[in-house]
Write a structure and sequence with these properties.
Rossmann fold; 2 domains; binds (2R)-2,3-dihydroxypropanoic acid; globular
Length: about 325
């Protein structure tokens, strides 16, 4: 009997697929650091029974139309804005993502970005690298306090809640805005639900953890940055396209808001000449929210578990 053919869109460690080689025929794109070219992906999709893909791959109608055998797309991310989910479901294709296993890791990075931005850690390191340190001075690289300030979390899903737990440890007041109320977070973390405008006008830190959808596309626009305090710090660890980057750039350049920490951008990867990278009051990271060795391994294992479940007629652990 022929084994199901699974195409993996990056080079991943052999140890991860080894437990499954009896069951599946695997092929991987040969590079770990570069996405598979679109034409190769489309060719592979024509004969794939399953795809294990990254957020860099667009699993759209064009691809689904030429993939008659496809039964599962296992996305190595919790976000799935790269996938035409409804189209896939109409064709009976299972889509899975990787929630839970990356929650705490992504919350760590989000909080690290908040701290790095508030306390100007990257600027301070660069200051020494550039050999500029001559004297101690009272306001040398003075940043913003984090403890006992107000954090406003936009998107109180699992990661939002994990960020709120960290904020609680810093004695912060926690506001959140979400499609629905999060009663447990209100009880356990003393998080307070706020409407969007109230959150924007009262938070010292506005943290976006909202999934990208047609409703959240460019949610953070000029009007939104206008409403924030001039001392506010904006953190985005969700998707770049939730932000109007030109509006953010203007708000940062004119000190309409104080600083920003960004792990995600509208078009990734960005280059060193991107306008936001030129600003001293902005910390930019290359989309590394869930990037620890353990978590990336857990995410890959979860993708393969999901694929194995579907082909043995069982429910995958984390379907959409
Ligand atoms: C996700 O899982 O959606 C992250 O952005 C990938 O690190």
């Amino acid at each position: 009997m022929t084994k199901p053919y699974i195409y993996i869109t990056r080079k991943i460690p052999d140890e991860i697929i080894n437990p499954y080689v009896e069951q599946f025929d695997f092929k991987m794109w040969e590079k770990a650091d570069e996405p598979v070219p679109r034409d190769i992906l489309l060719e592979e999709a024509k004969r794939a029974d399953g795809l294990l893909c990254m957020l860099s791959e667009n699993i759209d109608k064009e691809l689904l139309n030429i993939a008659p055998q496809l039964k599962i797309v296992a996305n190595l991310a919790v976000g799935y804005d790269n996938i035409a989910v409804d189209e896939a479901k109409e064709r009976g294709i299972t889509i899975t993502n990787t929630p839970d296993v990356l929650t705490e890791t992504t919350a760590d990075l989000t909080f690290a970005l908040l701290m790095a931005t508030a306390r100007r850690i990257v600027e301070a390191d660069t200051y020494i690298q550039k050999d500029l340190w001559r004297n101690w001075a009272p306001y040398l690289l003075a940043g913003s306090d984090i403890h006992h300030k107000t954090i406003g979390i936009v998107g109180m899903g699992r990661i939002g809640e994990a960020v709120a737990r960290r904020a609680k440890g810093f004695g912060m007041s926690i506001l959140y805005h979400n499609r629905s109320r999060h009663v447990e977070a209100e009880k356990e973390l003393q998080a307070t639900y706020a409407d969007f405008k109230e959150l924007l006008t009262t938070s010292d830190f506005v943290v976006s953890l909202i999934p990208l959808s047609k409703d959240t596309n460019q949610l953070f626009d000029r009007d939104v940055f206008d409403k924030m305090k001039s001392s506010a710090i904006f953190i985005n660890a969700s998707r770049g396209a939730t932000v109007d980057e030109e509006a953010l750039y203007d708000a940062l350049r004119t000190n309409q808001i104080k600083a920003a920490g960004l792990d995600v951008f509208t078009e990734e990867p960005i280059r060193a000449n991107h306008p936001l990278v030129q600003l001293d009051n902005t910390v930019c990271l290359p989309h590394i929210g869930s990037a620890t060795e353990q978590t990336r391994t857990d995410m890959l294992n979860l993708c393969l578990d999901n694929i194995a479940a579907v082909f043995s007629g069982n429910a995958p652990k984390t379907p959409l």
